[in-house]
Sequence to fold (332 residues):
Amino acid sequence: MLFMAFTILACGSGKSDGNVKESNKIKYANQINTEDLKEHLFLLSSDILEGRKTGEKRQKLAVNYLTAYYEHLGLTAPNDYPDYIQMIPQEFFNNRSNGPSPNILAYIEGSEFPNEVVIISAHYDHLGMKGDEVYNGADDNASGSSAVMELAQSFQMAKKQGNGPKRSILFIHFTGEEIGLFGSKYYIENPVFSLDSTIVDLNIDMVGRIDDNYKGKKDYVYLIGTNRLSEDLHELSENTNKKYTNLKLDYTYNIGDDPNNYYERSDHYNFAKNNIPIIFYFNGSHEDYHRITDTADKINFDILALRTRLVFYTAWELANRDERLVLNADKK
Ligand SMILES: [Zn+2]
Fold:
């Protein structure tokens, strides 16, 4: 009996083929939870931050919250940006900002391919105030910002337990998105890892709501861009979802002639323009989009957690599989 137990333990606790045990992976994914997401989202979308407008004084509170968080987690700051702050000068924003404003960059170094990087991104800026009224931007994009924070925590937990990613993972909170995708544009011109070594950008923008098409229906997320530069990425994403999260992946907005043109409307587009494959995670539009009514009480935290876990598993595969993504252009 004892011998059996010992054998089972010995088999169960080891790694097979250098891969992390499934149960551990699931444990890290399930660390993503509604309580943490709630805490981050309610804070980032609170009135005190006055709508997180690029370059405004109270946007700085979001910056402080994010940088203190990454310091607390123990993530690495890039050499050139020791406080996780990539400051963008005011002039870069083409007169659309009243001051400088930073991207926030924090990463976990890869164990086998440290120079290759998977980027997970979300913009943290929003629209500011109109008169006395605050644009809270709970869905747009405190939801994505909170998701990125949770993802960083899961990957850091894995690393602390000896299961860190093989490729580096860079977590970016972009500024200047709402005024013209300036934060991602600046990052592309000043990348921490060369663009040639940037495998993918998983960009999360508005993932905390359920749109009219899906009220009372299956859990879903719209995916945009998955196959445009890499069918390999599309397949990896599909297979990962089938295996772990089983959300309905809806590609309605991925068609080339989408009148909404969502493919070009968030930060991933600056990566796609540079031939870096992307996935844009999105809940669809709703009546509170870019209105003062986009508030935290309307967020569905269960679906926010589910979608964040899908990003986790997808990023895990991208960071840990042996082969880099195959670009469509390189396919024979
Ligand atoms: Zn927006």
